[in-house]
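Please complete every field before forwarding. Incomplete forms are returned to the sender.

SECTION A: IDENTIFIERS
Entry label: holo-597
Bound molecule: adenosine-5'-triphosphate
Molecule representation: SMILES string

SECTION B: INPUTS
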Amino acid sequence: MKDTTGFVHAIKYSLHICWIAAKGYTIFNVMIQIVNALLPFITILLTKKLIDTLSLSFESQNSNFLLILILLGGVNLTTAILSKIHEYTQTMQENLLQNYINVELMHKKLGMDMEYFDSPKYQNILHAVERDVYALNSVAWNVFQFIGAWVALVSSWVLFSKESILFAIVVTVTILPTVIANQKYTRLLYMWSLEQTPKERQMDYIRWISGEKTFSSDIRLFHLKDLLMNKYKTIWSLHFNGKRKVLKGKTVITVFLNLLPEFVSVFILVSLSRDILSGLRTIGDYTLYTGLLTQLTGGLYLVIQTGMSIYGDKLKIDTLQRFNQYHNRILDKGDKDLVGPVSIEFRDVSFKYPDTDVYILQHLNFTVQAGEKICLVGTNGAGKSTIIKLLLRFYDVTEGYILLNGVDVQEYKIESLRKQFSTLFQQYVNYSFSLRENVTISDSQKTISDQEVVNILHQAGADHILQHAPDGLESYVTKFFSEKGLELSGGQRQKIALARALYRSCSVIIFDEPSASLDPEAEHTMFQNISTLWSDKTAIYTSHRLSAVHLADRIIFLEGGRIIEQGTHKELMNLNGEYSRLYHLQADKYDIKSGVI
Ligand SMILES: Nc1ncnc2c1ncn2[C@@H]1O[C@H](COP(=O)(O)OP(=O)(O)OP(=O)(O)O)[C@@H](O)[C@H]1O
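SECTION C: PREDICTED COMPLEX
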């Protein structure tokens, strides 16, 4: 019963999607399907009439003979024309539906909370959905076929049962075990394929890194080719053997079960031949009877086949609906608009990542005045980037509050909140778009002149990139789409990402390790810009290069998710604590290298 409800629900759902995606083609396809199902019966009836007419003596034949021939020709012509039109409408419908599904999935993926990127469970279900989403398309197509198959089945059943109700029941009953076996194996196969999703993702991953530039150097240097190939082959063998086992079982059972209706058909034909020999039936009856029998068994098989395909699709649609139930936790809770300038306060903030037990940040208390520049310093994993993610509401705090201009961060509309921030992330990216788009993408509502984009590139120390760009601002970044695309060094890529962050109109700038790939001159310029060009903006940056850190108004030193020191550079040096120890550690190295000591 639960399955039947789910079955109907899946059909309704897919038809609903078809309707939204391709209304006209959907109606047309259903109509063609119904007409196509009825045409074979007209052919059978006309053939019977034709044979019966031919059996009469020449004199008894009348003008009906010609009419039947014309009608038969008409039916054949209609079938041929409809099949071609159907090919076209079906392809159009499939394209529209596929596009609709792709756009919907992209929309969902682009808006999901950051936490889902770290959830293998979510990634598995996403993989299964992307693999099986065509079910939405095929279920619609199968439903049309299913409707046609039922029309054909009911008509042939009614006509056949007029000849022999007993045989009609026997033929129908002998097919029932096939239905049960098919349903069992369709479910088994799908459940098996769901279990295989992590293996499929591992194979996808290996295939992906094999062609990915980022991994190419490691793969060649460490000779990872054989290792990757073997890893892939091992996973594939496990996958293949599992599938073979399930399919083997299905084949053995269904071959055996399919014999039953065949025996019944042979028995019916023998009994029919006997009736003709004893003169109880005509040759025309024989044609009608065998035609109807073929239609009946064909109709039964088509109903089972399409029914099972819909059942398989239903299981896939269930997964899609489970995927649709993944909802964001980071939601607009208030409707306030954040306007600059912006001050920040962390009030007793503690945080652990979703579905983990370890507190990454513990009882953080600090403030940043509007326009102030502070630097977060600390060992690897101390929690600096996590603070940035909380500020941008990529995650919500577990305990405590983050206040912006004295108001809880959750009171602001997310869009309005993020609008006030521009961030250069530690894992900065470049897009395989034009140089102009790589800069201006951070603030698409702004319209500025080419010269202003050039100025931004200058501020980011990226003028030389533009000077060597063959198509100026229109040059593609990376060679992914264009032979003339710019292949940039690590530092150059970081400068493009920096220009993007600078382009955005905002009140707070956040730079997470902004100088990681920059040369000393570019680093110097950037830190100078922070205190001069952006003097009115609140700034938070993190850096492991302590030589640049002293430019900040205040330094917050973190260790293990706790603030252990905070103050100006001078205050922390006088404190002679951890900051001072690390500062000396780095400074001493510079002295040794420069030969000062
Ligand atoms: N998505 C995540 N899920 C679970 N734990 C995470 C996640 N991201 C980071 N962590 C953990 O949080 C801790 C703090 O990471 P974070 O990136 O904030 O450190 P950091 O101070 O910026 O380090 P670094 O100086 O190396 O950049 C680390 O132990 C890290 O393993």
